[in-house]
Amino acid sequence: MNITENVSQLKQEISNVIIGKEDIVELLFIALLNDGHVLFESVPGTGKTQLAKSFAKTINGSFKRIQFTPDLLPSDVTGIQFFHPKEQEFKLRIGPVMTNILLADEINRATPRTQASLLEVMEEKQVTIDGETIPLPNPFIVIATQNPIESQQGTFALPEAQMDRFFMQIHLDYPTFEEEKKIMQTYRTNSPFNKLNTVLTLEAIDRMKNEVKEVTLSEDVEDYILRLVHLTRNHEDIEMGASPRATLALMRAAQGKAYINNRLYITPQDVKDVSVYILAHRLVLTIDASIKKTNREVLESILERVEVPVEVGRNR
Predict the structure, then answer these.
(1) How far apart are CA 43 and CA 291, in angstroms?
(2) Calpha distance 27→257 (Å, rounded)
(3) pLDDT of res. 85
(4) Which residue range or ranges hold the AAA+ ATPase domain (predicted)?
(5) What angle do CA 289, 294, 299 make, to 5 degrees?
(6) What is the structure's pLDDT at 88?
């Protein structure tokens, strides 16, 4: 079975639980292959938690969820050294970060101090508790959610430094009329989640993570990626553009897009397909632009302005 068939089977299995989100599953898989963290933005009740749980189950990975609230402490995320009265010694209790898929639900409800506790976890794939460093499982990705309609009600905006650590941001829309009708029919008697089957093993994913790095890009595509990123830094509507970390993320996401389509080389279309998810959330618009436009609209205008390479070589 080739990688395209693997991804198709993954999407088919999850579609038994999550209706109409096959393209989102593909993006999640690209993020997983690159150890990339994902930020979901959507109104409540659109299936974000169920999607994360279903994704973890189909890859035979462990799953844990943290409900972020204003009183959540950093130690509630990472873990703590506690004194065991019976044994008269300190014991290490690692927090819910010790998992393959960590759902940080409503991350913008937590204080900046607690949000910051995720920074080392997300960047270094390890957790340090009282000077002791513990590596996290492989693979490990954070899937965070935030509710855009409550941005001013007891929430704390994610700082740019943390936004930049998210490999991609995905907006989940309401289901269509027909999709919601199918949801009603699917969940009429009980939840199909318990019937989900494992499609891929963690060992297979580890092998794929090495294979995706072998996907090549021509110098033309390299330059195309750089022109996109550099225009975000020199654009009249943007106060702060994409970072070098974003450049690497865009390249790796394009590698993932090519890989799941059974190609060993990146095309400009691969770059265009993933650009909005990789770059938009990393941009800081000027005050004037933010009143009239969204980050996505500004990035789409950049994609229209940058000339796309006509011929792309398969090998460098």
Answers:
(1) 21
(2) 8
(3) 79
(4) 34-176
(5) 95
(6) 74
Chain centroid to Cα 155, Å, comes to 21
Full set of structural domains in the chain with CATH: 3-208 (3.40.50.300), 213-305 (1.10.8.80)
Q: Dihedral, CA atoms, 53, 58, 60, 66, nearest 10 degrees?
A: -10
Q: What are the C-alpha distances in Å from 274 to residues 7, 140, 278, 296, 307?
A: 17, 21, 6, 12, 17
Question: Can you give the pLDDT at residue 128?
Answer: 83
Give residue 313's pLDDT: 47
Contact 246, 168 (CB under 8 A): no
Which pairs count as long-range contacts for 94-97, CB under 8 Å and 24+ apart, including other chains?
94/127, 94/129, 94/134, 95/127, 96/64, 96/65, 96/66, 97/64, 97/121, 97/127, 97/136
Q: Which amino acid is it at 28?
A: L
224 vs 231: CA distance, rounded Å: 11
Averages of pLDDT over each 10 residues, the chain, 316 residues = 84 90 93 95 85 93 93 90 76 88 92 85 86 89 83 73 91 90 89 89 93 94 97 95 96 96 94 96 93 94 92 48
Distance separating alpha carbons of residues 268 and 266, to the nearest angstrom: 7
> Residue 315's Cα: distance from chain center in Å?
29
Q: Which candidate, 64, 77, 179, places its Cα nearest to that of 119?
A: 77
Task: Give the Cα separation of 24 and 19 in Å (integer).
Answer: 11
| Residue-level pLDDT at 223 | 96
* pLDDT value of position 1: 53
d(CA 132, CA 116) in angstroms, rounded, equals 18
- C-alpha to C-alpha distance for 139 and 137, rounded to whole angstroms: 6
The answer to whether 159 and 112 are in contact (CB under 8 A) is yes
User: What is the DSSP secondary-structure string of 57-112?
Assistant: HHTT--EEEEE--TT--HHHHHEEEEEETTTTEEEEEE-TTSSSEEEEETGGGS-H
**Residue 311, pLDDT score:** 56
User: For residue 316, what pLDDT is reported?
Assistant: 41
